[in-house]
Automatic annotation (TrEMBL):
Signal peptide: none annotated. One of its GO terms (molecular function) is metal ion binding. It is an enzyme of class 6 (ligase). The lineage of its organism: Bacteria, Bacillati, Actinomycetota, Actinomycetes, Streptosporangiales. One of its GO terms (biological process) is purine nucleobase biosynthetic process. Its cofactor is Mn(2+); Mg(2+). This is Phosphoribosylamine--glycine ligase.
Length: 415
């Protein structure tokens, strides 16, 4: 099978790695990719959000499947353009991708489908913002209605900060605060049925102890030893399938991965948000443990042939990923510095390195080219072992000014 993956981050390297390990994949292309995908696939320089450029590349490569990694190409209609050209695509059309592109639309879908979520108000004026903040009280939860790469949400006790964030966004969703731990669950869908992957947990804040600004994610792990038994079945029945049914009813069938960001509150499971693509960095640990070959699953979704009775196979044990971020991330990351120690990190038994924000310089050296630069994955028989392996490898990476959290999966690994 010839496959084209769109994107350049750690998530896309993880997807490409899983496809590279699948024996049915005969040709693997990534656009634009990074220095890591270059080692296992053919990279192509293009803007993945440009439907015309992507369709032209697909016409040349003749892929049997295109896998869209990030959210931006979905909301610019890349999947629509490819489907119109007759190319099978794993990723929702622009209309269905609004489930991530607009928080207000997602709330509308959840209300229609009876999906449990926080009470909320859509606000477009300072008066509406003040009224909503009064109604819900602290801690205040203010979400940019549009795409914000995981950084559009402010949760704060400081009303002035909430007001400032709302003013900087324009249209916002203000909602009731959800208590309890958060869980990410991905479900693969062909527009009718869905099959769940393993739940994972990520770490949004930049620094240890969940301090500092929100980021795209600083690490993740699976399994979740503290998650209640039956959680996945409950979420599939009360969240995922009703959402897919509602989108199909609106004649915008959802084809791709539906990412449910969940809070396990004292009142039960609630949806924090939906995303229209694999989460980053949760994908890096979830796909590590997936034993079922990936290509056939994604193709079945793309062509409408996913068997709802599919039971995925999983490798035993645990996986932990630690994000190595560039100096001054997330504010204004420093780019261009040389990365050293990659071979030493990869030589740690049970560890490997996925590239996120990297490229090759003119001398062929791997350099930082983004905020989240590398994802160091550690595996082992349990979370404690996987975590130790991930950090053993991460400490071998040398990048001037870089930083990473030291508490990824710490609490879960201690039982």
């Amino acid at each position: 099978m010839r496959i084209l993956v769109l994107g350049s981050g750690g998530r896309e390297h993880a997807i490409a790695r899983a496809l590279h390990l699948d024996p049915v994949v005969t040709a693997l292309h990534v656009a634009p990719g990074n220095a890591g995908t270059l080692e296992i696939a053919h990279n192509h320089v293009l803007d993945p959000t440009d439907p015309v450029a992507v369709t032209e590349l697909a016409a040349r490569l003749r892929p049997e499947l295109v896998v869209i990694g990030p959210e931006a190409p979905l909301t610019t209609g890349v999947a629509d353009a490819l489907r119109q050209a007759g190319v099978p695509v794993f990723g929702p059309d622009r209309a269905a991708a609004r489930i991530e592109g607009s928080k207000a639309f997602a709330k509308e879908i959840m209300a229609a489908a009876g999906v449990p979520t926080a009470d909320s108000r859509v606000c477009e004026s300072s008066r509406e913002v003040d009224e909503a903040l009064d109604a819900f009280g602290p801690p205040y939860v203010v979400k940019d209605d549009g795409l914000a790469a995981g950084k559009g949400v402010v949760v704060t006790e400081d009303r002035d900060e909430a007001v400032r964030h709302a003013a900087s966004c324009g249209r916002v969703v203000i909602e009731d605060f959800l208590d309890g731990p958060e869980v990410s669950l991905f479900a693969l869908s062909d527009g009718n049925s869905a099959v769940p992957l393993l739940p994972a947990q990520d770490f949004k804040r930049a620094y240890d102890g969940d301090r500092g600004p929100n980021t795209g994610g600083m690490g993740a792990y699976t399994p979740l030893p503290w998650a209640p038994p039956g959680l996945v079945d409950e979420v599939m029945a009360t969240v995922v399938q009703p959402t897919i049914d509602e989108l199909r009813r609106r004649e915008t069938p959802y084809v791709g991965v539906l990412y449910a960001g969940l809070a396990l509150t004292s009142r039960g499971v609630r949806v924090v948000e939906f995303n229209a693509r694999f989460g980053d960095p949760e994908t890096q640990v979830v796909l590590d443990r997936l034993a079922t070959p990936l290509a056939g699953l994604l193709q079945a979704c793309a062509i409408g042939g996913l068997d709802p009775a599919t039971r995925l196979e999983w490798h035993p044990g645990a996986a932990v990923t630690v994000v190595v971020a560039a100096e001054n991330y997330p504010a204004s990351p420093v780019k261009g510095d040389v990365i050293e120690g990659l071979a030493e990190a990869a030589a740690v038994p049970g560890a490997y390195v996925l590239h996120a924000g990297t490229k090759l310089d003119e001398e062929g050296r791997v350099v930082a080219n983004g905020g989240r630069v590398l994802n160091v994955v550690g595996t082992g028989p349990d979370l404690a072992a996987a975590r130790a392996t991930a950090y053993d490898a991460a400490f071998k990476i040398r990048l001037r000014g870089s930083h990473h959290r030291t508490d990824i999966a710490l609490q879960a690994s201690q039982g």
